[in-house]
Every structure is written in C-alpha cells, then in structure tokens.
C-alpha cells in the first residue's frame, strides 16, 4: 500500500511540475512586448506645484501624453481615453499617467488643477505638468512625438495624439503590428488602440 501511495504522490508532483510551475515562472518573465529603450528624462511642475520627473514613476507602469487644456480637437478624445485607463486600473498604485502640457503660458499649475478636477482625475499618480515651453518641446522631440506652435491651428498648437507606454524600469514598451514591426506608440484617439493599451498595461503590471 505504501508503495502505491508513493507512486500516486510522485505522479501528482510530476503533473504539478509540468503544468503549474511553468505558469508561475512565466509570470515573472518579461511580457511579450518590445523594449524600445529608456524614456527620455523630464522634470516639470504638476498641478499641485510639485516637481515631477521620471523617478517619480519608478516602479510604476505609466502612460505619457502631450496635450493642452484648451485643445478643441483631439484632446477631449484623448482625455476620455485616459479616463478609461484610470477607471480600468483604479486603486492600483503601480499605475500612473503623465500628461505634459504644450501650452505652459495658459496651463499654469492652478489651471491644470482645475482642469484635472473638471475631468475627474482621481489617480494620485496622474500628474498634469507644465514648465518652460522650449524645454517641453525638446522633451517631446526626444520622445519623437510631434508638438508645435501654430497660430493657424485650432487652439494655436499642434501635437500628436499618441500615448507612450512606459514600464516599471523606465523603458518605452510596445507591441508589434501584423508584420512584426513595433508600433512604438498607441493612438490615443482610437478605441481599438486603447484596448490594446489596456491589455499591455496589464502585462507590464504583472512583470
């Protein structure tokens, strides 16, 4: 009887090793997303007049965008999609959002605080940031995200509607397209791209 019990126990342990352990190990591996290098350094002032930089997001997965509060075109769509991300990961202190204004003259910390209140910002790590204009445009350039002053554009500025996904170690991460090429950034105005972003944030949070 003891021999039979030993055989059954050994069999169960073997099955556990084959089916369960790989899944446990997989959780601690890197997510199946491309690593595009370190996110460029930034240091700005948020809506609470606190200095915020990359280190403020250390150990967190976060999404970064360039926007401005009075934008009449794509920003309202981007705002709604950021709110969807906030709601999807509400209560998770490992998730944050970095919104950098390209209109620092009007988007003072006080103005951004009011804008955050109007939007319904609840995540304590959703920083709406401002600073010197040329510095902000230089940071955007380093991210390879288009921003610029254009008096003829609606609102007086132009900018990309893309979201950057950054992991806990400060790396820009992304998925690949159907041809195996990295998408680099996620379209913040596209519902499907935002759903991809949700999925990929979950992967990075589990790393």
Automatic annotation (TrEMBL):
<feature type="transmembrane region" description="Helical">
    <location>
        <begin position="6"/>
        <end position="25"/>
    </location>
</feature>
<feature type="disulfide bond" description="Redox-active">
    <location>
        <begin position="71"/>
        <end position="75"/>
    </location>
</feature>
<dbReference type="InterPro" id="IPR003782">
    <property type="entry name" value="SCO1/SenC"/>
</dbReference>
<keyword id="KW-1133">Transmembrane helix</keyword>
<feature type="binding site">
    <location>
        <position position="75"/>
    </location>
    <ligand>
        <name>Cu cation</name>
    </ligand>
</feature>
<feature type="domain" description="Thioredoxin">
    <location>
        <begin position="33"/>
        <end position="199"/>
    </location>
</feature>
<dbReference type="InterPro" id="IPR036249">
    <property type="entry name" value="Thioredoxin-like_sf"/>
</dbReference>
<keyword id="KW-0812">Transmembrane</keyword>
<dbReference type="Pfam" id="PF02630">
    <property type="entry name" value="SCO1-SenC"/>
</dbReference>
<protein>
    <submittedName>
        <fullName>Redoxin family protein</fullName>
    </submittedName>
</protein>
<keyword id="KW-1015">Disulfide bond</keyword>
<dbReference type="InterPro" id="IPR013766">
    <property type="entry name" value="Thioredoxin_domain"/>
</dbReference>
<comment type="similarity">
    <text>Belongs to the SCO1/2 family.</text>
</comment>
<keyword id="KW-0186">Copper</keyword>
<feature type="binding site">
    <location>
        <position position="159"/>
    </location>
    <ligand>
        <name>Cu cation</name>
    </ligand>
</feature>
<feature type="binding site">
    <location>
        <position position="71"/>
    </location>
    <ligand>
        <name>Cu cation</name>
    </ligand>
</feature>
<dbReference type="GO" id="GO:0046872">
    <property type="term" value="F:metal ion binding"/>
</dbReference>
<keyword id="KW-0472">Membrane</keyword>
<keyword id="KW-0479">Metal-binding</keyword>
């Amino acid at each position: 009887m003891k021999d039979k019990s030993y055989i059954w126990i050994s069999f169960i342990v073997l099955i556990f090793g084959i089916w369960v352990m790989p899944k446990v190990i997989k959780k601690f591996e890197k997510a199946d997303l491309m690593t595009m290098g370190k996110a460029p350094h930034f240091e700005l002032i948020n809506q609470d007049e606190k200095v915020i930089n990359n280190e403020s997001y250390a150990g967190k997965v976060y999404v970064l965008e360039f926007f401005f509060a009075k934008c009449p075109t794509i920003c309202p769509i981007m705002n709604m999609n950021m709110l969807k991300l906030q709601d999807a990961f509400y209560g998770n202190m490992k998730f944050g959002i970095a919104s950098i204004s390209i209109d620092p003259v009007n988007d003072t910390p006080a103005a951004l605080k009011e804008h955050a209140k109007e939007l319904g910002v609840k995540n304590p790590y959703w920083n709406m940031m401002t600073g010197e204009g040329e510095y902000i445009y230089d940071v955007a350039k380093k991210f390879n995200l288009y921003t610029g002053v254009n008096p003829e554009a609606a609102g007086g500025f132009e900018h990309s509607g893309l979201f950057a996904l950054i992991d806990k170690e400060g790396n820009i991460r992304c998925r690949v397209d159907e041809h195996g090429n990295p998408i680099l950034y996620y379209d913040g105005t596209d519902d499907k791209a935002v759903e991809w972003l949700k999925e990929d944030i979950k992967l990075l949070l589990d790393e």
